[in-house]
């Protein structure tokens, strides 16, 4: 089948002269040389006018249409009756090619800035090639020659496009990225984003010149967006955002409000509030008072509900009424916005977030993709310091959802056919988050997972476990009744394993020990007989329980101790909530904190809390290295570090910790010699137990040369800041007293 190529050339006399004749000659010569030259029929038309376009497409019935000439963002430059420029818009071109969509396979537009026209035409034509910038004669010529050379060699259009871009590059011409290929139904995301950006720039210019827009300007913008092929939802988002910004800017500049409702909505939309509900009141200007839902940010707010109030008054006389409305509607926050520089004093005890003219101005110039980060940082600086600590992500239950990173431990405790698990860790070491992650993983296996539950007493434990299974509970239920109910449930649900996740089990273990360990033995029997299984998370009592020979929790299940996070997980814990609050911790700073804390989650959280406090007090938005160093040397933080590492330590393990911090590295012989010098003989078994504990809990690291060192740099600093020799002497005194 012969492919017909129609070349349309226009070089208006009032425009820069182009080498179009040379380009056409090279194209024709290239096709004559090709091995498939019999498969092409090429015709060209000069001095093309608008009616020539339609006539050429109708008479020649081409599969490939190639336009040579000038282009601009407004359209392609053809000629009028006098030979001068006549611009044809993208809209007209798209509508024309729509009529020939079943015949034309490819359109080439080598005029400058023709990507807009190409995008419009690509709604109907399979392949359209345009340019995203101005393109010189040499680049256009090289592209055209190579395109038809490759096409004549039997390659498809996409390959011809790639070869042609490469041909420009081989000639050393920097414009090899200027031609762009757009396929029907597959406008590339990058290209579409460029189109959106282009329209946003043009619409913003129009709004800045004339707001509100006149009917004529509005019509012109509508036509332009239609030509560009912008989706309605994207169009609305762009225009609303730009109009909102202009509305806010004008109100601030004029210190006046022409339309309360329009301005209030603009501010609320800009701050990403949702569920905007107007509150009507005879005491407030119509459209000034709203109930809203605040957006999710890095702050863990007690409620996302708030009351938004837009004020123009210079003296706030409505404080009591605002308090009453906020309290009645269960709003924890009052968002008070003003276009005049007047702070709303006297609203205590409410949480007042004040959007002053300067903060509103700052908000509307923040890039859209950074707006929520800015808002989080703004709220962080506005919320009352007394209420703030409980709202930080490092201090709330949200931490279990935000962070994890123990994938290796999770895989180990759920691999194979073993049943249940023991998870041991210090306070806030990540046990709860581990159980939450474990729950999601086990549920994917379609197992029945109950918990995590926290033990308070036997009867509430029986009640919680049975009611969640839909089983009856009666006051005074015996341990045997509880066990029988679980067995009955498991027998009826044989296709699914029943799993209990129990958190903070130290209280349960202590009460069970006091009553003869019957619950522990019953749990062990239920697990061994396959009725259900238990994953237990706890502290010192659980660690002690698994060492008791003959005890119910000895060899109960796979055992795991949670120590420091991996480097990547620790960096995530450091950087992600800070980012959500609008602050950046760079890679070097994050690694420094990770090294200092040895990845211990609770120490990372405490460090970041102190860092946030420093940021708030200094009222800066940049985290500096001196700020990091100040916290590293803070006595308050170092005390927290030392207290954390005292967890579950005996005198001998603590003495080894102190000795290692003093010396930097120690061998077993160093430890025994120091102990002996102080009149203490430590057995090999007892030394092994102490060293194993310190390694297991991430206090010490064993090096290749049989030496030990402390993992946490901050622990070394904390010990040295507290007279380590006196501390060591105190621990050794305890050993001598035994």
Please supply descriptive tags for the structure shown above.
6-stranded mixed sheet, 5 domains, elongated, 14% strand, Rossmann fold
Sequence-ordered SSE layout with sheet pairings:
Blueprint: E1 3-9, H1 20-33, E2 40-45, H2 50-60, E3 64-68, E4 71-72, E5 75-79, E6 85-88, H3 90-98, E7 106-109, H4 115-121, E8 127-131, H5 137-152, H6 157-170, E9 179-183, H7 189-209, H8 215-228, H9 232-254, H10 260-270, E10 274-278, E11 289-293, E12 305-311, H11 319-328, E13 333-338, E14 351-355, H12 357-365, H13 371-382, H14 398-402, H15 407-414, E15 421-424, H16 431-443, E16 448-454, H17 458-467, H18 479-492, E17 498-503, H19 506-514, H20 518-528, E18 533-538, H21 540-545, E19 558-561, H22 567-580, H23 587-597, H24 601-618, H25 625-632, H26 635-645, H27 651-663, H28 668-677, H29 684-696, E20 700-702, E21 708-710, H30 713-720, H31 724-737
Parallel strand pairs: 1-2, 1-3, 3-7, 7-8, 12-13, 13-14, 15-18, 15-19, 16-17, 17-18
Antiparallel strand pairs: 4-5, 5-6, 8-9, 10-11, 11-12, 20-21
Kindly describe this structure.
With 738 residues, the chain is an alpha/beta fold. It has 5 domains: 3-187, 3-Layer(aba) Sandwich (Rossmann fold), CATH 3.40.50.1460; 260-391, no CATH class; 400-561, P-loop containing nucleotide triphosphate hydrolases (Rossmann fold, 3-Layer(aba) Sandwich), CATH 3.40.50.300; 567-632, Helicase, Ruva Protein, domain 3 (Orthogonal Bundle); 643-737, Winged helix-like DNA-binding domain superfamily/Winged helix DNA-binding domain (Arc Repressor Mutant, subunit A, Orthogonal Bundle), CATH 1.10.10.10. The protein contains 31 helices and 21 strands. It is elongated.
């Amino acid at each position: 089948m012969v492919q017909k190529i129609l070349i349309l050339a226009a070089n208006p006399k009032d425009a820069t002269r182009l080498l179009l004749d040379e380009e056409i000659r090279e194209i024709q010569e290239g096709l004559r040389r090709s091995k498939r030259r019999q498969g092409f029929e090429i015709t060209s038309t000069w001095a093309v006018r608008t009616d020539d376009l339609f006539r050429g497409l109708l008479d020649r019935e081409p599969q490939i249409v190639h336009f040579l000439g000038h282009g601009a963002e407004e359209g392609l430059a053809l000629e009028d009756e006098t030979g001068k420029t006549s611009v044809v818009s993208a809209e007209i071109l798209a509508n024309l090619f729509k009529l020939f969509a079943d015949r034309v396979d490819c359109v080439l537009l080598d005029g400058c800035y023709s990507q807009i026209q190409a995008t419009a035409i690509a709604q109907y034509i399979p392949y359209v090639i345009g340019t995203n910038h101005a393109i010189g004669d040499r680049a256009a010529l090289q592209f055209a020659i190579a395109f038809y050379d490759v096409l004549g060699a039997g390659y498809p259009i996409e390959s011809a496009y790639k070869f042609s871009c490469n041909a420009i590059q081989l000639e050393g011409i920097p414009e090899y990225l200027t031609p762009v290929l757009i396929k029907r139904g597959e406008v590339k995301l990058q290209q579409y984003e460029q189109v959106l950006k282009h329209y946003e720039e043009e619409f913003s210019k129009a709004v800045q010149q004339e707001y509100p827009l006149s009917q004529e300007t509005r019509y012109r913008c509508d036509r332009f967006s239609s030509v560009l092929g912008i989706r309605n939802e994207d169009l609305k988002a762009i225009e609303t955002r730009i109009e909102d910004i202009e509305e806010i800017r004008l109100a601030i500049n004029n210190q006046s409000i022409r339309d309360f409702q329009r301005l209030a909505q603009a501010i609320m939309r800009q701050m990403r509030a949702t569920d905007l509900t107007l509150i009507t009141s005879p005491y407030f200007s119509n459209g000034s008072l709203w109930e809203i839902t605040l957006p999710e940010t890095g702050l863990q707010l007690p409620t996302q509900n708030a009351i938004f109030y837009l004020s123009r008054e210079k003296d706030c006389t409505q404080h009591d009424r605002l308090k009453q409305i906020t309290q009645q509607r269960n709003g924890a926050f009052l968002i008070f916005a003003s276009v005049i520089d007047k702070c709303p004093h006297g609203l205590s005890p409410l949480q007042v977030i004040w959007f002053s003219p300067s903060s509103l101005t700052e908000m509307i110039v923040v890039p859209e993709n950074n707006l929520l980060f800015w808002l989080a940082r703004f709220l962080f600086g506005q919320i009352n310091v007394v209420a703030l600590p409980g709202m930080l992500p490092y201090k709330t239950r949200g931490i279990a959802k935000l962070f994890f990173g123990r994938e290796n431990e999770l895989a180990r405790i759920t691999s194979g056919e073993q049943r249940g698990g023991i998870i041991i860790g210090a306070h806030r070491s990540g046990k709860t988050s581990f159980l939450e992650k474990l729950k999601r993983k086990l549920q994917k296996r379609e197992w029945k997972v109950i918990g995590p539950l926290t033990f308070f007493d036997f009867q509430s434990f029986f009640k919680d476990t049975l009611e969640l299974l839909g089983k009856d509970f009666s006051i005074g239920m015996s341990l045997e009744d509880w066990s029988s109910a679980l067995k009955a449930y498991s027998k009826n649900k044989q296709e699914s394993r029943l799993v209990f996740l129990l958190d903070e089990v130290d209280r349960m273990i202590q009460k069970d020990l006091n009553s003869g360990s019957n619950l522990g033995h019953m749990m062990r029997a239920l697990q061994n007989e396959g009725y259900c299984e238990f994953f237990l998370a706890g502290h010192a009592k659980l660690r002690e329980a698994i060492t008791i020979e003959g005890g119910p929790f000895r060899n109960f299940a796979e055992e795991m101790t949670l120590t420091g996070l991996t480097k990547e997980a620790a960096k995530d814990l450091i950087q992600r909530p800070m980012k959500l609050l609008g602050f950046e911790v760079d890679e070097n700073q994050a690694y420094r904190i990770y090294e200092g804390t040895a990845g211990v989650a609770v120490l990372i959280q405490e460090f970041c809390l102190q860092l946030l406090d420093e940021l708030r007090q200094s009222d800066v938005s940049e985290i500096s290295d001196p700020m990091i160093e100040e916290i590293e040397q803070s006595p308050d933080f170092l005390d927290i570090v030392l207290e954390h590492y005292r967890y579950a330590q005996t005198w001998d393990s603590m003495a080894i910790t102190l000795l290692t911090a003093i010396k930097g590295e120690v061998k077993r012989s160093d430890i025994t010699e120091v102990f002996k010098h102080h009149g203490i003989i430590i057995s090999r078994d007892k030394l092994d137990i102490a060293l194993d504990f310190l390694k297991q809990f991430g206090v010490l690291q064993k090096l290749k040369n049989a030496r030990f060192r402390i993992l946490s740099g901050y622990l070394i600093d904390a010990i040295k800041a507290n007279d380590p020799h006196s501390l060591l002497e105190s621990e050794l005194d305890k050993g001598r007293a035994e």
